[in-house]
# Entry
Amino acid sequence: MPYSHYDNPHGFEARYSRQSDEPIVINGNDDFLTGGWLGNGTEEAPYIISGLEITQTSMPCVSISNTSAYFVITDCVLRGPNVSIFVGGEIDPSQFSGCVELTNVKRGVMTRCTLSGFGSAALIEGCLGTDLSLCTFTDCYYGIRIRNSDDIIVTICTFGRAEGPPDRNYHGILVEDSSNCSLKNNVVTGGFLVHNYDYLSLLHAGMTIIDSEECAVIQNRFVSSGIRIVGLPSVSLDNNTVNGLPIVLLDSLVDCEVDASEYGQLLLTDCENVTVSGGRFNKTACGVAFLSCALCSIRATTVGGSTGGFLLDGCSDCRIANSTVKDSAIACFMWSSTNCSVENTSFINNVVGVEATGSPRTKMGCCAMSDISRTGVWLFGCHDSQVKCNSIAQFSLAGVGSQTADPYAGAGRYVSKALIPEAYSSLYLSQSNRSLIAGNSLSGFFFGLALQSSGCAVVNNTISHCSWGIAVRGSGNRIYSNTLRENGHNAVDNAPGNLWDDGISVGNNWDDYTGIGFYQIGGSAGAVDRFPNGTNWGPTLSFAGLALVVSLVGLIILLTLRTRRRA
# Structure
């Protein structure tokens, strides 16, 4: 058995090489020699870094790069700061640095270590044949982040605290663009709070695998977390559980029904005409995920206290109906899906109700959302979509009565979605042209409707108790037969070519309409509603036009009198 293997009973006994509070930086094999580390870099006698307790606030505790020698990091306690990934309102990539960073490393081992803090407790990038075992990771954004690496083994590690205060871990293990990774016999305890308003924390998972090949996920135990799979990588799941219930991956099913009542998490890939029903998912990364599925449905399923309720990724003609998601982060997320719908579903006390990106012809109808703390429905790049007959309400009406002349003034345009003003909308459409918004009740948000799309129809909606009822920054939209009341400002239009009536006789109902003349819409477009509250004021005549009318009337009277005299 190799000296560096975690099962070797003799490998690390009394091998403490030095005590140090200084960070360890090794760049190339020669630095092991100049640093005086025990061993010679062979498999039988690897270099040993052991018994250290290091605390750092800015740079990694241990950084090893560009090495091919065998080495072992063992029995160390390594600490960094509890960082926020947001600096000045923007995502700061530097905050993802690691407490331990291994870059372009071959044949490395880390075992029996405790790591905490930094964006990543352990950052593994461009590495080959690296093993991590029997380690503990706490209070970090990522426990282990593996990128562009091959043949990485993570086994018998613990992520998060089972007891005590909530852990700040958002992700236990993240694997990106890597291959042949084995993740086995780990315990991941989630400690996130879904209402902490850090947008990226809404994507929390115990384990996330993105665009990676030949990954084996075996006998891991998740508590209040679970698994996310992104980009349909080749992943095998075997004997994993969340909260004591099995996590199951079903592949290539056709024309069948799945009873989800006994699962802790359910993922389906490449399935067609499959109906999932009866699920009761709680405190997991995602209740049900459809990955590259077609004509599949989720029915009569409940998700609670989770990062995500339902996920549709790369799907077509799929449907979610008669279900409930509550006390969760993103209740329903669609990515690169086409002609998918959410119907007759309840969303209660979530951060985001429905978010869809790059998903044309999305349909959402007859859903009820209450106590939504950030965004009700968010459509980005979802052309030709329909949002009809939904009720969307926020838990707080604190935004009512804002007297800001411009809702965007001083707001900035941040990288973080959490900080753009439209993020606090009942309904937000961005680059989702030719969509229909009809028959909805929207209340209690900063924006009732934030419309950054073109060619949309906004009809028969009731918008109330918002700081801004309707805010438009797209062109060619037609907005009529809506009721706006008890908002701080009913409407603002900052784009040309929008019509605020049907062009014939129907405008909108405004609670602040004076009853005289056109209704002036705020904003730089100078738009008006020509038929407010059912009134028809017709065209406005200039003085010259009025004089012409009077002259014509006088001429008609004169001709009539002359005709009578001749008679």
